[in-house]
Amino acid sequence: MGKYKGEGSLAVRPKTTEEVSRILKHCNERNLAVVPQGGNTGLVGGSVPVFDEIIVSMARLNEVKSIDPLSGVLVCQAGCILQHLDDRVAKEGLMMPLDLGAKGSCHIGGNISTNAGGIRYLRYGSLHGSVLGLEVVLANGEVLDVLQSLRKDTTGYDLKQLFIGAEGTLGLVTAAAIHCPPRPKAKNATFLACATFSKVLETFRKAKADLGEILSAFEFLDKESLDLAVGTYEDVKSPLPGSPERFYVLLETSGSNEDHDNEKLHAFLEAALESGAISDGAVAQDGTQLKAFWRIREGVPEALNTHKAMYKYDLSIPQSTMYGLVEDMRARVGDRAYTVGYGHLGDGNLHLNVVADAYSEELTSLIEPFVYERTAELGGSVSAEHGLGQMKADCIGYTKGDSAVSLMRLVKKTLDPKGILNPYKVLPLPGEVTPPQDS
Ligand code: 2HG
Ligand code: ZN
C-alpha cells in the first residue's frame, strides 16, 4: 500500500529451514528484532519493519516437497507463491483451498501467518481447517516439527493452530502441509443486481438453499464500488451497463457436472427473478466472461489503491447489520471522501473503505474510533481476514476481552521471551491501554 515505511537496513534471504534456525538463534542471543516477510501484499503493515528490525525474507524457501493425489495433501515451503502452488496442484486435479486477489505474489507462509480468507472461504473454510501440519522455527532457533499430513489427529494440544494467524509473532512458519480439494470440472459465474441490501441478503439465503454444495463464492459490491472500478480501468466493464440498482452480487458455482450445475443455477436465477430478490442478472457464457466478472471484483481494491489517502477496514459484522455501517460512515464523512462497501458477504466479511485525495485529521477523527466502536457494538471483529499488523495492534480490545488478551501476552512471553519476533504487531505494547471490550 506504500503506507508503512520502516528503517530496516538489513534483509536476509535464507534458503533452508536450517538457515532460518541459525538466523533466529543468532538474533535471539544478541537481542536483535526480526520481521518475517513474504510476498509483501499485506494490508496492515505486518511485514514492514517499524524501526530497524532485520527483514527475514522467505522468498527463497520456495520448494514443493510433495503432492499426494489420493489424500490431496500438498507439502511445501513457506515462500511458495499461491498462484504457483495452484498451478502445480492443478496437474494432479486439485486446487488450493484459498484464493485471493494477491495470489500472483503472496506467499503461502504469509497466507498462513495472517490466516488469510479470500473469495473461496465460503466453500472451503478457514486455514485452521485446511492446514494439516506446520514446520515452525521458534524464537530461539529451535525447529518445531508438527508437519504431519493427517486429516485427523487428537494427540495432545494442536500446536500448529497457534501459528496460523499469529503474523510471525510466535515463530516463523517455514513449511506447511495443506489439504487441497479436487479441482472443480464445471464453473459458472453470474453478476446480479439487487435493489436493496435486504434483497442481497434474501438472494444469499436463497442461493445457499437452492445451490447447496455447488455455491463457491458470494461477493457483494455497492454501486459506489462498481462505479469506481469501471471508471478507473478500461478493461473493467459492467455486464449490466446502465443498471440503476444500488447493489451487485458476483455469485460463483463450482461442481463436478456441468449439466447438473447449469440446471440448478438456472432454476435458482428464475426463482430469484420471480420473487424480486434480484432485478437483473447476467450469466458468464464462457471462461473469458467468467474472468471478466472476477476482474470487476478484483478491480475494486486496485482502484481504491490509486488514491493518496486510504482508510481501509476489514470487518466481520453480522450480515443483517452490515450495510448500515457503510451508510453511517458515508453520512459522517460526506463529500470529504468517497466511501465504498463490498466484500465476502457469504462470510459476513465487509470491506469498508474510505478514500480521499489527502489524509487529514478532520477526516481521520470522523472515521476512527467510530468504525471500531460501532463494530464492537454490533458484536463484530475489527479484523476479519487481513490481520492486525501494525495498523490495528492497539485495537485488539474492541474484539477480544482482557482475559483473552492477557493469555495471548502469556503465550507470546513463553514462546518469545525476548520479544524479537515481529515486535509492535498484533498485541499492543505492555501498559498501553486497549479499548475496553464493552465500551
Ligand atoms: C479483497 O477481498 C481483499 O479484495 C482486499 O481482502 C480488500 O483492500 C481491501 O479492502
Ligand atoms: Zn477480502
TrEMBL record:
Its EC number is 1.1.99.39. One of its GO terms (cellular component) is mitochondrion. The keyword Aminoacyl-tRNA synthetase does not apply. GO terms for molecular function: (R)-2-hydroxyglutarate dehydrogenase activity; FAD binding. The keyword Oxidoreductase applies. Pfam families: FAD-oxidase_C, FAD_binding_4. Keywords: FAD, Flavoprotein, Oxidoreductase. InterPro entries: FAD-bd_oxidored_4_C, FAD-bd_PCMH, FAD-bd_PCMH-like_sf, FAD-bd_PCMH_sub1, FAD-bd_PCMH_sub2, FAD-linked_Oxase-like_C, FAD-oxidored/transferase_4, Oxid_FAD_bind_N. Gene3D superfamilies: 3.30.465.10, 3.30.70.2190, 3.30.70.2740, Uridine Diphospho-n-acetylenolpyruvylglucosamine Reductase, domain 2 (3.30.43.10), Vanillyl-alcohol Oxidase, Chain A, domain 4 (1.10.45.10). Its cofactor is FAD. Residues 4-183 form the FAD-binding PCMH-type domain. It comes from the Eukaryota. Belongs to the FAD-binding oxidoreductase/transferase type 4 family. This is D-2-hydroxyglutarate dehydrogenase. It comes from Chloropicon primus.
